[in-house]
Design brief:
The protein has 320 residues and is an alpha/beta fold. Helices cover 29% and strands 14% of the residues. Helix 1 crosses helix 10. It binds NADPH dihydro-nicotinamide-adenine-dinucleotide phosphate and oxalic acid (OXD).
Length: 320
């Protein structure tokens, strides 16, 4: 039986979690972990598989025999912009635990704003006991989700359980029984009804800078929350942070929850840190579970070697 191809890892997860997750993963295969200094100048020929997150730009030119590139995350913008990317299938990470984690974060943020938690946090800081008026119910609020892929669809169902009215927007219109959906051409109509906008879009040429001043101004005003709220866990490159700051300041937006930023980590100088109506998390909405990632990669390699089709392959023309 021919030797099984090794697997290259070029990941940014903390080393102990990778070492732990490798126990029992990829039986019979050698692992070449690029975080290991010994592997810095190593000959990578003969290796068919690489699992990467923001890969070293020279990796692909050194690993000439690659057959598949696996993304260490659900998004692939960090791979598609890598230097000298070979024309190979890129498989993204789709996983129950990642999806559940994202929906938890999205529901949490929608509830935070529905229940006016940023204002209560200020009151708590000031030791002020004061019940705020206007506490609408979830059913009075429309959450508009931009991106109805794996993550967007799951968030829809979990927001519905909480009672929110949900609508969704995607490039191609989706038939979803429980909600009203819109395609690209229906963007304005979608925004006009949206009280809380949730961004779950990949970063592509078409979505870069999409959350800008014009878009914020089209969201519904005077709904149950008074002013619209912006929530983004897709990619920071889709938001224009200068516009976002102005919109939050001048009342075009009533608040925001942000997990992703134009530049990460978010600079200590960013005025967003100091805004009471902004909730910030450090790109932590849905971290990839390394064990689950290796399981998913091993499954896809098995499929390929059995002669079956790979799943979750990125469409290089659309960029996601
Ligand atoms: P999918 O590829 O499953 O879904 C993407 C969705 O976006 C699809 O509905 C797609 O439309 C839509 N879309 C893409 N481009 C456009 C466009 N130009 N106009 C309108 N709709 C568009 O991705 P996932 O749901 O798995 O993940 C979404 C993103 O979430 C990832 O790409 C990643 O950037 C981000 N992410 C962030 C994490 C975090 O921790 N913050 C963790 C994991 C992911 P259509 O259905 O028509 O193709
Ligand atoms: C991802 C991410 O794309 O963590 O999976 O952002």
């Amino acid at each position: 039986m021919p030797a099984l191809s090794p697997v290259i890892l070029d990941l940014k997860f903390p080393r102990p979690s990778v070492v732990q997750a490798l126990k029992g993963a990829f039986p019979g295969r050698k692992i070449i972990d690029m975080a290991d200094h010994e592997n810095a100048g190593r000959d990578l020929s003969g290796v068919n598989y690489a699992v990467v997150w923001k890969p070293n730009p020279t990796l692909f030119s050194r690993a000439k025999d690659l057959k598949v590139i696996f993304s260490g995350g659900a998004g692939v913008d960090h791979i598609l912009t890598a230097y000298e990317l070979p024309d190979l299938p890129i498989v993204r990470f789709v996983d129950r635990s990642l999806t559940d984690r994202m929906s938890e974060w999205v529901v949490l943020q929608c509830l935070m704003h529905l229940r006016r938690m940023p204002e209560y946090a200020v009151q708590q800081r000031d030791r002020l006991w004061h019940e705020l008026e206007n506490q609408p119910e979830a059913r009075d609020v429309t959450v508009g989700i931009m991106g109805l892929g794996v993550l967007g669809k799951d968030a829809v169902s979990k927001l519905r359980v909480m009672g929110f009215n949900v609508i969704g927007w995607s490039r191609r219109r989706k038939n979803m029984r429980s909600i009203q959906t819109y395609d690209e051409s229906g963007l304005n109509e979608f925004l006009r009804q949206t009280d809380i906008l949730v961004g779950l879009l990949p970063l592509t040429d078409n979505t870069r800078g999409i959350y800008n001043r014009d878009l914020f101004a089209k969201l519904r005003r005077g709904g149950a929350l008074g002013k619209p709220i912006f929530i983004n866990a897709g990619r920071g490159g889709s938001q224009v942070e200068g516009d976002l700051f102005v919109a939050l300041k001048d009342g075009t937006l009533g608040g925001a929850s942000l997990d992703v930023f134009e530049v990460e980590p978010l600079s200590g100088d960013s005025p967003l840190w100091r805004m009471d109506n902004v909730v910030i998390t450090p790109h932590a909405a849905a971290a990839s579970d390394v064990k689950a990632l290796f399981r998913h990669v091993a499954e896809q390699i098995d499929r390929l070697e059995r002669g079956e089709k790979l799943q979750h392959v990125v469409d290089r023309t659309t960029g996601y």
